[in-house]
Amino acid sequence: MKLLCFILIATVLVFGLSDGITAEATNESTAKASKNSSASAVKKVSVEEFEKLSKDKNNVVLDVRTRKEYEAGHITGALNLDINSPEFEKKVSSLDKSKTYLVHCAAGGRSARACNKLSGMGFSHLVDLPPGFKGWEAAGKKVEK
Q: CATH topology for 40-138?
C-alpha cells in the first residue's frame, strides 16, 4: 500500500512539474512571438492609402531607391536613403523610431527589404507601398523632379 501511494504521489509530482515547465515554456515562447510580430508588423497599402498617409506631417515618406532614380522623379517631400548603400543602416539609425515611415522603392522589392531591416532595428511604425513608385506614377499621382 505504501508503495502504491508513493508511486501515485511521484506520478502526480512528475506530471505536475512537467506541465508547469511546459506551460512556462509555452508562455515564454508566446510572449516572444507576440513581441516579434508586433515589432515586425509592416502594413502594406494601396497607392491611394499611401497618398492619404503621406499628407500627415507626422509621417515620413522614405524613398529607398538610388539617388539617380530619386532625382529622375520622386514623391514630394520624400527622404532618399538608398537601401543598397553601405551607409544605409548608419543613416537609418539617426531617424526617429517613434515616427511612421512610408517606405517605397520602384516596384516593391527593395521597400520590403528596407522594411525588414528597419523592423529589425526597432522601427515599429512601417508602411510599405508594394506597387512602388511605378504604381504611384501609373495612378497619376503627383511627382516632383
A: Oxidized Rhodanese; domain 1 (3.40.250)
What are the sequence ranges of the domains in the chain? Answer: 1-39, 40-138
Q: State how far the Cα of 20 lies from the Cα of 8, in Å rounded to an integer.
A: 18
Q: Which residues are catalytic?
A: 105
The dihedral over CA atoms of 101, 95, 75, 120, expressed in degrees to the nearest 10, equals -50
Of 105, 121, 97, which Cα lies nearest the Cα of 62?
Answer: 105
In this structure, the strands spanning 126-128 and 42-44 are parallel
Our CA angle for 110, 82, 141, nearest 5°, is 70
Entry pTM:
0.73
How far apart CA 71 and CA 131 sit, in angstroms, is 19
Amino acid letter at 132?
G
| Per-position pLDDT tens, the chain of length 145 | 554 444 545 444 444 434 444 344 444 444 444 444 444 589 999 999 999 999 999 999 999 999 999 999 999 999 999 999 999 999 999 999 999 999 999 999 999 999 999 999 999 999 999 999 999 999 999 999 9
Locate cell 515620413: which residue?
A: 60
